Structure formats: C-alpha cells, structure tokens
Amino acid sequence: LQDAQDEYEKPPFITYDNVLVWMTLLDAKALLERLQDTAAAERLAQRAAVLRMAILKYCVAGGAPGAAGTLFASATDGVHPTFADVPPGSLMKLPQLGFVPQTDPEFERTWDWLHSSGYRYSYADRPYGVPGSYRLPFTPSWSVADELRLTRGREQALKILRGSHWDNGIVTEGVSPETAVAEPAGRAFATAAGDVAHAICESF
C-alpha cells in the first residue's frame, strides 16, 4: 500500500514493487539451484515468468498525456494506470534491475514521457532538471543516480553532479532544477548520498 516515498498509493499494484518481487524470485531460484533443489528452483522460475507477463500486461498502458504510445505506469488497479514516477522506486531503474534493456520500446517511451512537458514534474526544460515527483518537486538525487546509469541520461546527471555544491559537498535529497542549489529539505541524507556514490562507482 506504500509507494517508494512512504505515501499511500491507492492503486494496489505498484510496478516497481512487482519488479522487485520478480527479481527476488530469480535470485531465490539461483540460490536453490546452488543448493541442487532443482524442483523448487523450477517452481520459482515459473512464478517469475508468470509475474513478468502480468507486469507487461497490466503495468504497460496507453493514455499518458502527450505520449507517443504505450509506456510503463507507476501503478495500476489492473484497469486504470497511474502515469507518474516515484523516486527512489523509479521506473528509470527497470534496466538496472534487469527487467528490460534500455532499448526496450516501452522503456524508451517511458523515458521520453517522463522527460517531456506531458509529465508535470519532468523539469526537462530546466538547466539542472531530471524527473521528480509529487513529493519531491525538484531534481531528486535518486533520479540523478538512476540517470547516471542510463546512456541517455548520463550527460545531464554529470552536469548536475558537477554543477551543484550540494550540502557543502555531501549529496542531499535533491537540488533546484533551476540553480542546482541544494533543497532545504533532505539535507544530511545518508541513503541518498550512498545511492549516488554507488551509481558513480558502478558507472565509472
């Protein structure tokens, strides 16, 4: 019932959460294979495959304002999709989690839409903008970390990292998309700083 920002999410099926469960099933399958429990491993593989098909069936939809086609919704009740993003549980993490490649058409359209004027919190027209959210209406460090791992977003992420002083050099929860000055809320945010540091290490 809670999204990645600790807020109540009315639609019961959150895309990011279901992708985490899919990944967990595959991790558990790999563990069972190492333990030579092939029957249990196969059962988890089948459950993961069924879940992946369900995510692609119900969490991909058309109707986002100004979108060129179907894309990943952040949540759904199976009929009515919610088109938004929820850092740190961002749809931009789907390639990082191994669910789809960066070149997947639905993912590319999702990236395009989240970086367009159709998404209220895109900040694509701002000098230091990357997609935020209803709870993080600025450039979130979580999004900077996600963009750093993506080919299409890396240059903008690097521009933000180089252009902001953050909080005396320590990454905060986010910065102004206009000026790259640290937002007053979210200072001394250790998990945010750790996520960005991890993304830098992974990328370089």
Task: Give a structural overview.
By secondary structure, this protein is mainly alpha-helical. The chain has helices spanning 15-34, 38-58, 105-114, 141-148, 154-163, 190-203; strands spanning 13-14, 60-61, 71-72, 75-76, 81-82, 139-140, 174-175. The strands form three sheets. It has a three-stranded antiparallel sheet with strand order 1-4-5. The protein has a two-stranded antiparallel ribbon with strand order 2-3. A two-stranded antiparallel sheet has the order 6-7. Helix 4 (141-148) crosses helix 5 (154-163) and helix 4 (141-148) runs parallel beside helix 6 (190-203). The radius of gyration is 18 Å and the shape is globular. The model has no long low-confidence stretch (mean pLDDT 94).
User: What would you call the shape?
Assistant: globular
| Main pleated-sheet profile | 3 strands, antiparallel
Q: Write the H/E string, N to C.
A: EHHEEEEHEHHEH
Name the beta content range: 5-15%
Number of helical regions:
6
The low-confidence parts are none
Relative helix content: 40-55%
The span between the termini is 36 Å
The helix-and-strand class reads mainly alpha
Q: State mean pLDDT (0 to 100 scale).
A: 94
Strand order of the largest sheet: 1-4-5
- Rg measurement, Å: 18 Å
Number of strands: 7
